[in-house]
């Protein structure tokens, strides 16, 4: 899959069942969409596999993700 | 465009939320070849956001019965609900909840092992007498747990999932029989005809027509758009349930508990305006009273911000400790989505659309029904709908809390059962597709592909949402509705000329959003035109010029047709299946 196609896939996977996540991810793409590194894209792909309620609790800081290599991506999502 | 290939199934279900998954269980476990098409992975459907619970008069904590539940539902609907469908739903509630338990749903439990039930607004015993515990829940993850339990059951039953596919158009033959849908695979851009003997729409709501909505971005009313384009009317589309306090510009809900803790609503001059509308209850007045007051302040130019389009929920006078301890989630939401720390500054809020009571007209078997040959309930062969996209009508003019998850289960199952019986009664070969089966899909895609000097999708969608919020919101004014009809039709001309710059085939989200907007605009027109025409206040429709319910003239369902925006009406079914009719009364709580 080309990079454009892979980013398109990630953008679509950013469509969630919960409005809160849609909004956070929309902002994330607006701020970081143009500059996303390959490594970041891979982390985002992993993060987007999380269940809705779990991802929201992690973004709110009520719990941690447990995978240290994804912590950087979670920080970006928390900041936007 | 490439040729459209055909895949054949016994049954096609569009949408993999609660209703779609429940119907699919019924079909697959009957041994029928069943495909479920979904834009997103099933457990990311919007059902996941439902927290409150599912209503069933199990009577596990105290005496309860389905007739009391039925009464609450009819009253909640402000008598616009069909009493045959409401009786059907309330009588089936225990059965579908127990089935769900057997699918592995982790309901909260009492010490004796039975399902725990909690109180919920509008749930009463003995025909409206006193509150009763009727809501069954799995902590605050009821919808999430429900989707998981039903998805697993479908995997076991060999349901075929087509995930990240978007359904495009309903295909009917000359006699009106539904033969399936066309759909696009997001990963390849390929368009396929899913041919079926029975087609169910379970595509959910369309709250995204409003600027302020609690709905996730996927709720674009795809099933309603497809149905409308195929000549099926949409029923009671003027009725939308609103919450008074969603974060302005975001839609995320601020719970009523905030006003319970002392939060005050203020207009642009800082006035505590609820004192004028409800001198006693003030900010704690009921949801509809608060919403109408907020809408009036905004309409009369006393809203806040550059567009004067929101009011403020002020907690700054409260002890910061109270906010931190009792309302931590709210502080998070406000900082995250309003950029305002409620300890230091007020939260911008607006009445926010939450649930669509109307939809594709069905009977309680889940069959889509339309007026034909002098009947108002002629079955459309091969076509079924369930869940928020359908209008059975059990919610009438206003939905009772926790009846949405019940609706999914009862009518998902009922539609599935009807489809099984109908498919078995059909010849083994699929009916022939007409020569023009793909014309509509081809022309829509070609139009989008070739559009020059067209409208920007995002801007057009935003224009639609602003018009709906300003002209067709929680409190409706005749002049605003009239202008709203003109404005939404003007937006429609832009929707018909949307242009996308990116023409790639693989995960082209711009194309998908343009196709979603084609569906949203049908819902928006239906809502605006139906609301403008209905000259009364009933349930969720509150009109300034007609403040009362008018049963003499308006005890009837609206039907909106896309062709020429024609309106028709049909009677409300006041006769239940086995019990006495619940007679008209004023709806007071």
What does this structure look like?
The complex is a heterodimer of chains A (80) and B (589). Chain A has one domain (3-79): Orthogonal Bundle (DNA polymerase, domain 1), CATH 1.10.150.250. In chain A, 65% of the residues lie in helices and 0% in strands. Chain A is built from 5 helices and no strands. The longest helix of chain A has 14 residues, at 19-32. Chain A is globular and about 35 Å long. Chain A starts with a helix and ends with a helix. With 589 residues, chain B is of the alpha/beta class. Chain B has 16 helices and 22 strands. Chain B has helices spanning 18-29, 66-76, 83-102, 142-156, 222-229, 257-260, 274-277, 287-299, 320-326, 328-338, 403-424, 439-450, 457-471, 478-495, 509-533, 551-554; strands spanning 5-14, 34-38, 54-55, 117-125, 130-136, 160-163, 165-172, 178-185, 191-201, 234-235, 240-247, 264-266, 311-314, 347-356, 360-361, 367-372, 375-385, 390-391, 455-456, 498-499, 556-560, 567-571. In chain B, the strands form 6 sheets. In chain B, strands 1, 2, 6, 7, 8, 9, 16 and 17 form an 8-stranded mixed β-sheet that branches. In chain B, strands 11-14-13-12 form a 4-stranded antiparallel β-sheet. In chain B, strand 8 (178-185) and strand 9 form a beta hairpin. Chain B is globular. Chains A and B meet through helix 1 and helix 2 of A and helix 10 of B.
